[in-house]
Amino acid sequence: MLRLRFALFVAVALVGGLLSFGAAQSARQQTLVIGGDWTDLITLDPGVAYEFSPVPILDNTYQRLVQFPGTDLSHVVPDAATSWDIASTPDGGTTITFHLADATFSTGRPLTAQDVVWSFDRVIHINGPSAFLFTDVAGLKVGSTKALDDKTVQLTLPKGVNPQIVLAMLTFNIGGIMDATEVQKHIQGNDYGQHWLNDHSAGSGPYMLDRWDRGSQVVLVTNPKYPNPPSIKRVILRYMQESNAQRAALTSGEIDIAYNFTPDAFKQAEQNPDLKTYKTGTFVMQYLGMNSGPGAPFADNRVRDAVRYAIDQDGIISNLLGGLGRKMQTIIPYGLLGADTTVYYQHDIEKAKQLMAEAGKAGGMQVEFLIPTGACGGGVPCADLAATVQSDLAKIGITANIKQTTSAQLYTIYRQQAAQLVLAQWSPDYPDPNGNASPLADFNAKSLAWRNVWNDPHATQLVNEAATSTDPAQRKAIYAQLTKYVAQNGPFAILYQPVYPIVSTAKVDGFARSAQGDVDYTAITKQP
Amino acid sequence: MLAFLLRRLGYLVFVIWGVGFAAFFISHVVPTDPAAAALGSNARPAQIQAYRHKYGLDRPVYQQYVRYMVDLFRGDLGNSLRTQRPILSDLRDFFPATFELTLGAMIFAVFLGVPIGVLAALYQDRPTDLVVRTLALVGGATPVYWLAILALELFHSRLGWLPGPGELSPYLIEPHRVTGMMVVDSAIAGNWPDFVSSLRHLILPAAVLGAFSTALLARMVRSAMLEVLSQDYVRTARAKGLAGRVVVLKHAMRNAALPVLTVMGSLLGSLLTGAVLTETIFSWPGIGSYATSSAINLDFPAVMGVTLVAGLAYSLINLLVDVLYGVFDPRITYA
Q1: Which residue of B has its CA nearest to A43?
Q2: Residue A289 contacts B, CB cutoff 8 Å
Q3: Is there a contact between A407 and B149 if contact means CB atoms under 8 Å apart?
Q4: How is A214-257 classified by DSSP, letter by letter?
Q5: What ipTM did this prediction achieve?
Q6: Of A374, A415, A429, the CB nearest to B45
Q7: What is the pLDDT of residues A149-172, one digit of tens each?
Q8: What are the distances in angstroms from CA A417 to CA A199, A257, A305, A307, B87?
Q9: Is A415 at the interface with chain B, CB within 8 A?
């Protein structure tokens, strides 16, 4: 009898153990843990956030009217809107009328046109760091967004604003639609619910915010009201600033995806059968800015040309970046309309020396070379990249004296037009060629062309023509002229367009990251 | 005793004022613009100007200082430029994790450093002593960030004995936040898997952070014990026929405790600063990580908040050490 009881006990314990092991396994399979440096997360309010880390979080929690299909950013497709019509107004402006799909917020309420109006007007009222996209770029005001009925919403754009640019911009988290009724319940003072939205979400996307433990993790769980439940039920973004820590945690299986591998570690990961590597796109441009103002070291375009001939881009990409970059010499990056991949400058030291001589600088010159601390595009230390550039320039008689500062200090100097030669990065504010063309080629935009004191009316004219043209083919043709012109006359020597290296365990399937930083968590599955 | 305490607390106010003054002016002579840092590289001049105005950064430094001090006396450390939250809320979120880690490191240092120091003294110039002295030398000379990466690689990646970065396994649900210390909170919640996981997560960073302190403590205990062991009263105790254990534990160690205590006080301070590196590598959500990201982003109010809290903690620890002197040595009186 005693023996029987013991056998029974062992059997029950075994079954219990197996069941709990099975449950733990299944929980692991349904949980995706992503390690990365998320320290730039300061808000999870889609109407305010303007950093890189919140992008995938907000894209998975809030629907927008339109979205980009996966990693293809050349055209928009429906999201909360099933279709839209663009029409001209008598005063030369345009309207975009969106017809909404049936969607339900995680709170259980249906998504209506009134929610869209409230969400968009809220962005303008708050006037956060990203609000200029609505107010300056799209020319929206309170009242520009109108609900024609529960399922139809209309945007009125002033004359000169290109609706194609606005559509591209609405894919960004600023276009996230929130449950107005819910958020209004949690307004404190005049914060429009900003405080509440840091720890809760009120969207209709496939996931909702479970918790944000500052400095530790952001946890998303599936939205029970979303029509197609995804395979991954819980997404955890774990703060891991150190790439070594990420590598260790990925190897042990504690995290599934790591966002910050160094080029060296990435190379090793490519050889490891237990890991998968992804070279995801970016719109980032790593470049040298050359002060071209009167009396500045690079005032003569022949000197700028000499720099462009002197830089060994292929050497930088293969030796320094380990292939984590694409060669590029123009101001519109791969992935956007009008991207120009022409190689205008082949590495040619003799030609560069000749140009220096023609500019009267045969005896060489000295410049201060401002560079940031930390990593540059593609994860390479900026100091290493600067040293390579320095040695390339030395070959043509330019002595670049490196001065390394924090990014914040660097941009303070750069913004005062006080940098002679600067190593910097740029990525567009919104995924449209105008997001690069205007700041880089139009002096009046008071951005990069201005910082490098390059005022060229022809470039400005081309920028404006392209910005207002609504015909994609015509825009493309104007951008072809503009990119060639700026490549050969502008104040930049573009070094490369980095790819963003990401590594996952071999168990992860379906991961893809767009150049904007979007990741569709619903497309991801995890093998046991 | 009370008069002593009050006087020391009075001094504390001056110390904190001094720390705050230094932190404020150092952060304001940095030739850069926190507004530009907060708004990023793409920000337009008008945006930067508006931001500077909103946070009073466009006012003269002395005005900013007066305003800061007035707010400080009201118990308001201001808002973080980066997180846009009150710094006190940020510190409340981040401090418990650092406290837990520092406490873990101190426990590690005391429970390892003191016994090996005693052993080294008892077996002076013998192999045990040599091993302890070598370990103490290596432990004291190894940079904490290097040790952290090495420990993570060996004990987590290669051997798999201990979990990796973070406070808790990501596959577990966090306990309800009571103290903010994961081990304590999971114990309060009676959540056994969380308790085990958080304790295991604490071991590696605490050991790494405590390595330097262990080494220093071992050396201090060794030399203090050597000195005490040669004293007359120890010889007398031995002559009385007392057991060796009683002589060491009751007579010698109590008297050797005083210099050790002094070292422990200053060690706690160094643990707080060491936590910056350890927390960054072990993804530990404490004020070290917070200070690092605040400093990188030129979030001056947050940096000043952290500095003040660290200064306060350091001063209070030193006060505690002074009070404990009397406990260990009744000859000391507080006038």
Answers
A1: B83
A2: no
A3: no
A4: TTTEEEEEE-TTSSS--S--EEEEEE---HHHHHHHHHTTS-SE
A5: 0.79
A6: A415
A7: 999 999 999 998 999 899 999 999
A8: 40, 41, 21, 20, 34
A9: yes
